[in-house]
Amino acid sequence: MIRKKKSFFLAALFFVNLSLAQESQRVYLSGTGNDKQVEWEFYCTEGNNARKWTKIPVPSNWELEGFGRYNYGFDKAKKISKEQGLYKHTFRVSPSWKNKQINLVFEGVMTDAEVKINGKLAGPIHQGAYYAFKYDISKLLRYDKENLLEVKVAKHSADSSVNAAERQGDFWLFGGIFRPVWLEILPTVHIERVSIDAQASGDFKAKLLFHGKGNKIVCQIYSSDGKAIGQSFSQDISPEQKEVNLQTTIAAPSLWSSEFPTLYEAVFEVYAKNKVVHRIKKRFGFRTVEVRARDGIYVNGVKMKFKGVNRHSFWPTTGRTTSKQISIQDVELMKAMNMNAVRMSHYPPDDHFLDVCDSLGLFVMDELAGWHGHYDTPIGTKLLKEMMMHDENHPSIVIWANGNEGGHNFDLDSIFLQEDMQKRPVIHPWQLFGGIETQHYREYNYGIGNYNNGREIVMPTEFLHGMYDGGHGAGLEDYWEHMWADPLSAGGFLWDFADQGVVRKDKKDSIDTDGNHAADGIVGPHREKEGSFYAIKEIWSPIFLERKEITSTFNGLLRLENRYAFTNLNQCSFTWKLKKWDIHGEAIDSLGGLVKAPDIKPFEKGNIQLDLPSNWNIFNVLYVTAYDPYRKELFTWSFPTTRPKEIAENFIQTDGNQAIQMEETDSLYIIQTNDLTIHINNRTGILQKVSNGKGDIPFNNGPILQQGENNFGKFTYRKENGHLIINSSFDKKSSYNTLEWTIYPSGWIKLFVRYFPGDYFTDFVGLNFSSPKEQMLSVQYMGMGPYRVWKNRIKGQTFGVWTKAYNDSETGEAPWLYPEFKGYHANMYWSLFQTKGHSFKVVTPDEDVFLRLYTPAHKEDPWKNYDLVFPTGDISFMQGISGIGTKTQKRENTGPMGMKNIFYDYEKDPTRAKELTLYFDFTEK
User: Fold this and answer.
1) What is the DSSP letter of 628?
2) Residue 154 to residues 42, 75, 76: CA-CA distances in angstroms?
3) CATH code at position 147
4) Residue 31 lies in a domain
5) For residue 447, what pLDDT is reported?
6) Same domain, 346 and 223
7) Residue 906 contacts by C-beta under 8 Å, 6 or more apart in sequence?
8) Is 80 exceeded by the pLDDT of residue 689?
9) What pLDDT score was predicted for residue 429?
10) By C-alpha distance, which of 9, 903, 400 is closest to 1?
11) What is the C-alpha separation between 236 and 84, in angstroms, rounded?
12) Residue 597 DSSP code
């Protein structure tokens, strides 16, 4: 029995080895990414740690390993850097490979690479950083001893057009062997290239180039679970034939899309003398891409709205050397924002990124490098063919881009079509080309040419530039609703996905974004989520919930729209949840349930019915969550079920046992009650100081009205029902804004202000107070959170009780600690402030009050568009807030939500005065 088992094992091993021998083998000489690297010998000619032989991990960019100099593309002085990296690595090869073809493959080297094996050139110097290339080194190898691989890498190219396309862009410039290196072991008769065209109709075509003399090619298609689909099909070939075309038709295949990324595998076998000598496998998807002039871009017969983002291949500690895990993380983050597309800016990505887009479902715009400059035609043709051979069969790729922003070589457009069997559309980002207008950073109201009033398809390949906290979610709602409604809009691509912050070994491992050049991300260098992440997630949700105010008549019915392209909402799922908090911010009750998914086809509207309990209105908020067919959350919408006035009534205490004492001096009302001493200026109504038994509370110097006249005057006081009331007098000419303080025996204080904004157009309106940030520890509040908002970025937040520790975080800068503390926070009901020694609470019965917490730091912005606008003071209670601009657009040019607030002039309509009520508790019980 033992002997039989051993025989069976050896036989199985023989057949496994035979099977492997028929397939291409890959043996890595380097690691596979930044999570698995192999040390090679290294010598850097200039900069840090130069002129000495040492070790470096491969793949890597040498700057990130402490060598050479860090260069950003705008660094004019260093664009012609002479830095070179010299690499050495020894390896052995199996004697069994002697009769095979051995290719040495580099997936990416920055940028000129001279390769030697055992002192002899492997082939011509390769120029161009982002493209896989190979050499046949079979005749240069020693099969009985170690082999020496030497690579000389120039950071900048000897070809000026390569530098124009790659080395002078708005991004970090690195050097090195930054993608994997491997040996490809092939039989002498083998397939060199497979090009697949699999249409939504089920028509399958493949063009194969092969080496050596075979007599037949056979193909079998398999599903992702390994099941054979249809019958195998084949083509006889003559000994001299080097190209063959295969075709078949699969009945009713499952189609590939970003929503349902169904993949198949085609297995091709080459026969020589009626024996399989080489087998190759290619993943693909059935899908059709077409451009219909003056109409749209269609995938599988459905007009698409691309919800896209630009992405650099980047990681802060390793530069352009990434890993499959990073690719998975990035695609999952994009899909978590409900994106369906990504643009490869501004070069082809790692192979594993495209694999992940294929398997998880993300449309890809793949781009030949070019940034205001382009490759000349000879080298551009070579690099384009390398890109095509490397990327062509990925079903995720639906569009090719020929360079960026003027970096287009028109001679290459025809070569895209010649090389691409699928004839996917080619665009020129920033130009009108091929019937698609892609102009970057147009203003919302840009209504000339080929945008709002044009006749061409509109698809900006960059819009809403995300420098720091501007752009991205700020302005997106206005843009997207316009894009969604415009039949000629094909969507667009935000700039960009992640902050490109480099960990500088020469600066104590601090993270450098080259000032404002690379702080453009929705997420930080290590994928920290900014507020725009959640705004985009809501705005781009494929399930759109109509706005709904929950009142006592609410019957559980919500209106929604299916903005999917291929998914019926009955394939999704929904839940509801009710939640309630006590006056201390502690959750005290919750209840939830499932919702029957409605039968709503793509682009149609309908309802969902929530089966809520009869006492639903005793809770504070209703949450509704939608999930995609894979149980991934699309978004959770929150609907407050109680108004601020109802919550305030639970907080406020007016009764007390102590009588209110007041003393008036030349300029002050000094009030005492319930261990409090309150100083109010009797000429301006300003709270100058408030103290309790623990000392002075760091909150004063308010209310200061902005933007409006602080003309409170002619103060009087009275006692009424045991309360002290201090109020100003109304005078239409000089004191038309009024305030009233009410001090209760309990120690609670009420402030009521009636005011008129100073201008018809205002940046913001509300009341300011002083509270030194040096004293602030944290805030807990009920409202929308936890991120700050802008007038043109309200979406993405959730109603609840949030606690935020004080921080000085600024978006796009170290330490990337989010959410930021400073800024505007929406729909405040109450706030509890913790300072160094005191706590105090502010409550409002009014709706739509914004809590302003300090002022974010000034940002470097040479274009003067980002433009942070905040009131004076430290803590404010606002009824209108400012928007935020982008690198390329002032806030008012990002759409109506970015414009200033508009209020009626009181002289024209005195009933339009704003009113705001605040209650303060300084008692610290």
Assistant:
1) -
2) 13, 18, 18
3) 2.60.120.260
4) yes
5) 60
6) no
7) 736, 756, 912, 913
8) yes
9) 97
10) 9
11) 50
12) P
Phi–psi pair at 358, nearest 5 degrees? -60, -50
Residue 603, in any domain of the structure: yes
The boundaries of the domain holding residue 268 are 190-284
What integer best gives the mean pLDDT of the chain?
93
Helix (H) or strand (E) holding 780: strand 776-785
Give the model confidence (pLDDT) of 844-861 as tens digits.
999 999 999 999 998 878
Best CA proximity match to 852, nearest among 866, 830, 870: 870
Q: Which residues touch 438 (CB under 8 Å, ≥6 apart)?
A: 427, 428, 429, 430, 431, 432, 459, 460, 461
**Three-state DSSP state, 548:** coil
* Same domain for 721 and 663: yes
DSSP codes, 789-823: BBTTB-TT-EEEEEEEE-----TTSTT--SS-SSE
Q: pLDDT band for position 153 (50/70/90)?
A: very high
Other C-beta atoms closer than 10 Å to the C-beta of 570 total 13
Closest of 481, 395, 402, 397 to residue 434, by C-alpha: 402
Let me know: does 346 contact 311? Beta carbons within 8 Å. no
Q: What digits encode the pLDDT tens for the residues 625-666?
A: 999 999 999 999 999 999 999 999 998 999 888 889 999 998
pLDDT at 906: 57
> Strands, DSSP E only, in 285-337?
289-292, 296-299, 302-303, 306-311
- Which pLDDT belongs to residue 18? 40
Domain finish residue from 624, 643, 662: 643
Write down the residue that tokens 């991120």 correspond to.
787
Residues 28, 86 share a domain: yes
Please count the structural domains in the chain: 5
CATH number for the domain spanning 687: value is 2.70.98.10
Query: In this structure, are 267 and 407 located in the same domain?
Result: no
Residue 910's pLDDT is 67
Chain centroid offset of residue 465 CA: 12
Which residue has tokens 């002085």?
77
Sole residue written with tokens 């990002």: 894
Point out which residues pair with 520 in neighbouring strands.
Answer: none
Q: Is residue 64 part of a domain?
A: yes
Measured torsion, CA atoms of residues 791, 792, 795, 801, in degrees rounded to the nearest 10: -20
| Structural Rg of the chain based on CA atoms | 33
Domain end call among 539, 572, 603: 539
Distant-in-sequence, close-in-space partners of 162: CB < 8 Å, separation ≥ 6: 111, 112, 127, 128, 129, 375, 379
Q: What is the pLDDT of residues 701-715, one digit of tens each?
A: 999 999 889 999 999
Q: What is the pLDDT of residue 80?
A: 60
Q: Is residue 872 part of a domain?
A: no
Q: Does the structure show a pLDDT above 90 at 253?
A: yes
